[in-house]
Amino acid sequence: MKKRLLGLFVMATILFFAYLPTSYAADIVMGGWDTDGDGAIETVYNSGSNITIKESDGSSRTYPLASNWFIMGAADTDGSPGIDLIFNVSGTVKIVHDASQTTSSYPMDSNWWLLKGGIADTDGVAGAELVFNVNGNLRFLHDKTGTMKDYDIGGNWILISGGISDLDGVPGAEIALNMGVVGGIKIFHETTGTWDTYDMPANWTLAGIYNQDNVAGNEIIYSTYSGTFVINDRLKTNYGI
Q: Can you spell out the DSSP letters for 69-117?
């Protein structure tokens, strides 16, 4: 009987909290970042339909979002001091700039997602870009300039694991894509809006993306039945080692 009563109590407690209004779930800690660029860490709270940023002295600022949102990341996206907070708000990308106490909103299409590792400096200019797959196109969101640009890559593609990386030794990360058996590997340079294509065998396995030659820029190392190979995008080569 005691176990039954305890079980009923636990179930009642779960249901009680499950059906509390959103406002009750205010002030849940999301994390700590230097959001205003003063060198000290602020604490960011989920306040239901808002986020609240609190200073160590107890002062706070609140930014409205919506009833349906989640955080996608935190990074310096505008090139100014302070970490900016990036949200998906009902399908719109919203970035909170606490240093200037402003927000930026970017409406997106119906079919999109942020690439893994897709918050990175891709143009070599201060401030991280956001890189998306939008209906099969690469989309770069430049919060520093408040602009977005799409590139038609052509064909079906997937991002290579760890494929957002500096591959040519020039400031700004490249995007390495697997285009399939026919398309090989395509490396997109957002700094110039161009790409390099490397033919690949039918069966290959990624071994890693790292600095293999001790010169600026990482290489793509892969293996096949016949050995190990390196794509060096700085030299525009694909050779065996």
A: EEEEEEE--SSSSS-EEEEEETTEEEEEETTTTEEEEEE--SSEEEEEE
The runs of H, that is alpha helices, within the chain are: 2-18, 180-183
Mean pLDDT, the chain, rounded, equals 90
Please state, as a whole number, how many other Cβ atoms lie within 10 Å of the Cβ of residue 32: 15
pLDDT one-digit tens code per residue, 222-234: 999 999 999 999 9
| Residue 71: closest CA among 57, 47, 87, 83 | 87
In sequence order, the β-bridge partners of residue 185 are 178, 198
Closest of 231, 233, 225 to residue 201, by C-alpha = 225
Q: Report how far residue 216's alpha carbon sits from residue 137's, in angstroms, rounded to the nearest whole number.
A: 29
The answer to whether the predicted template modeling score (pTM) of the entire model surpasses 0.85 is: yes
- Could you identify the residue written with the tokens 């285009």? 179
Residue 73 phi/psi, 5-degree rounding, is: 170, 175
